[in-house]
Every structure is written in C-alpha cells, then in structure tokens.
Hints:
Largest sheet of chain A: 5 strands, parallel
Largest interface: A-B, 41 and 41 residues
CATH architecture of the largest domain in chain A: 3-Layer(aba) Sandwich
CATH superfamily of the largest domain in chain A: SPOUT methyltransferase, trefoil knot domain
Oligomer: homodimer
Shape of chain A: elongated
Number of helices of chain A: 8
Structural class of chain A: alpha/beta
CATH class of the largest domain in chain A: Alpha Beta
Amino acid sequence: MKIYKKGADASYTLGVFPTIELLKNQPDLVKRVVVHSSIEKNKGYPLIKELCEKHHIAIDVHDATIKKLSPKGNCYAIGVFHVYEKNLEEGNHVVLVNPMDMGNMGTIMRTMLGFGIKDLAIVRPAVDIYDPKVVRASMGAIFSLRVKYYESFEDYHNEYGHHEIYPFMLKGAKNIHKVKPTGNYSLIFGNESSGLDDSFLNYGQSVFIPHTELIDSLNLSQSLGIGLYHFTSAQFENKEVLR
Amino acid sequence: MKIYKKGADASYTLGVFPTIELLKNQPDLVKRVVVHSSIEKNKGYPLIKELCEKHHIAIDVHDATIKKLSPKGNCYAIGVFHVYEKNLEEGNHVVLVNPMDMGNMGTIMRTMLGFGIKDLAIVRPAVDIYDPKVVRASMGAIFSLRVKYYESFEDYHNEYGHHEIYPFMLKGAKNIHKVKPTGNYSLIFGNESSGLDDSFLNYGQSVFIPHTELIDSLNLSQSLGIGLYHFTSAQFENKEVLR
C-alpha cells in the first residue's frame, strides 16, 4: 500500500474506530485490513475480526505498513478501500461549493450524519474527500454518506433545481429564523474564506445567520451546524431523550 | 521576548489582524509591538502605526524576534501584552469545564463574540487561553471578552448560582428546543472528549441537543455554536439584514 495521493483508486482508514465504520457500512469496498502486531489488546479488535470474517476480508498483520501510512504511531488498524462515488438520493442535501479544508470536511460529514442528512454534493475545485485526513476527521461518517462531485453549481442545479434552494450568505435576503422548509431542500455553503459569490443571490431563498458586528462571519462548520440544527428542527424538536 | 510558556506574565499575538484587535480593545495591556522589516507593504500596517501612536506604544522592527516566535513565516507583526484576568460582569455567561483544545478554544471565543456573549468562565484543569495558539485561533476575539478561571464549578456557582444554569449533556433532562431562558443564564459545556459528568444533572435545567443515533455526540464547538444560536435567538430573530 502506498501513501495516498489525490486521484488514487484506493485509500485507507487510519485507526480502529474508522476501520470498524468502514467494515460496517461499506464492506463491499474493502480490499483488505492491515493491523499492527500489538492490536490484540485493543477492545475494538474482536469486532474487526468478526466483520472481516463475515465479509471474507483478509487481515494482514504488518507493522511496517502501519508505520509507513501512520508515522506518528497510535494507529493499530488500517482499512484499505476502493475509492467510490455514489449518486445522491432524493431527500435533503448539503451542497458545499469549493470547500478546501480537510479537517472541516470531516467535521461537516459527522454533523450531517448527526442531523440525518446523508447526501452531500461538492462543487469543484474542492478538497479530496478520500484523503485519509478527511476520512479520519470524519471519524468514519464518510462511509454512511452519499457524496458526489460536480464540476459546477449549474450541474447540480440541473439535477436538483426542483429542491428548495437555500444559499447561506452574509448578504442573504432572509434571516434564517424566518425561514422554514416545506419540501425537500438543499442547503448551499461556500468556501471557508470567501463564502458564496453574489451569483447565488439568484438561486432560491438566500439566508443569513444573524450575528453581532463584532466578528466578520461565523466559520463554515459553525454555520453548517447551525443551519442543519435549524432546518431539521421539525424532526427533532419533540424528541424527549437523546438515547 | 521569549517563546511563551504557561504561567508567563506576558504573551503575544502572531499576525497583523490579531495585533490590531489587541491594540483596539486592550491598548493598556500592550508592552510593545514588534514588526518584520517587510511589513511596509501590508495594508494593515497604517492602522497599527496609528493605534501605537495614539497609545504611545513603541514599534520595534526586529526580524529575528519575529522569526523566533513564528518560525513558519507569514507573520509580520507581534503584539506583546501583559497577561491579565478580568472579573466577569452580570449578564449571560458561557462556562467551559476542563476544555483542553487550543484551536477549539479560539473558535469558541469567536463564536461567543458573534452571539454577543462576552463573559467566559473556565473551570480548571484547562487550556491556557494566553497561549499564542489560542490567541491566534480566536482571531483576536479574546481581547473583547472577559475570561475568568475557577478552581471548581462550585466556585463559579457560589458567585453565579442566581443565574439560570443550563448544563449541556447527552443525558440532559430537556430537549433544547423546549427551553427558553427568562433571565440571565449560564450555558455549561464539558470537556471535548468526556463532556460533563453526571453531577451536573443536579444543577439548573440540563439540556440535550437532539441528533440521530448515527453519531456518538456533536463536537464541543458545534454544540456551543448551536447552543448560543438557540439561547440568543430572541435577540437576533428580527434582524432584517446582517449588515
């Protein structure tokens, strides 16, 4: 296994927890699992063994591979998987236009899963979601989402223009507090530094998240968390306990 | 100037933007400003000069100091300031119990400022907010907040037990959607990995942010962003434009 490079046809999870998420959610894509010889004590290992056995996936004990792919140590399992792309399904979507930060991307995936939105469109140029840093930051959430890249927002809009489109912008026309979705919606967020350009004022209902003038803007993952909390509230507001 | 160590009586901003925030908001605490010889072209420099002149603060051109404190480059100004602690004021508070992540802490400070909450209590053990990494991540927001450390939550509670206390917990007794504050409140958040322990169920009205069972929990800064968005909504929901 080589260190991942953008465009490679296989990538890998780093660590026991994301490897379990991979095996649980995308077993058909797994090429093999590599573990460190000291994994025996790890309490996640029985589950890795069980899932690999169930899906006829080989487990190799190979410390040198682990060390090569995760030089900082503290990694006991690696799941090698085929890079894949899935078509989105009808339902609510998040659309990220030109996201560039790997750590952010992972957090965003996890937050989406937390609010039950499983379809993510990404408009290029954008971060490579199969980079092991994104996979790690997502804590495996990536394996429960459908993610599709588009060359332009127009391309996405041609497929999903029938959705309620909500671009999140500092110049947004409506206060998010005053907006409630009535059908399937797509929440659109721009790049970490520059946001969405003014052309997005022409799509659907642009919204802003009000805040004080003491900061320039909320950061992307905060805006997304707040946006999802607000837009999914009908689904969660009557829940009496978390679990 | 030495590289900052926890407990030192002076720390410093790294970069033009946070240095300006320091000079604008806490000029009395500034010991001096150090700039790189190539700062002349930087468009923030005239404002730094103006603020230093106004407050009689010396500007030293000293590339070696900049290089020592910011070895990665890309830093043109450093503001050296006395480490300070301020008493909290009456009003709404955020209380962080045992926060440990420097980057998170900076983001949290910025988000607080964005929602107009300027008082932050931190229960030790905790990250050192004067670490230049926190100052940088806060993008200078730290200089607009009042931050006070407490040795225990009891110590904070002895001072502010008359507030409405809302501990954010996975086991929280009430869905956040069902909770509205009626007076001054304190929002309590636990450590990044372990959250708040069960003893916090005994304080005020514990709340949970509902999410799917597909993730273990939202991360600390997401929870805080959502919590602030929700609790401050009365103040922002009628704003017609962001700026």
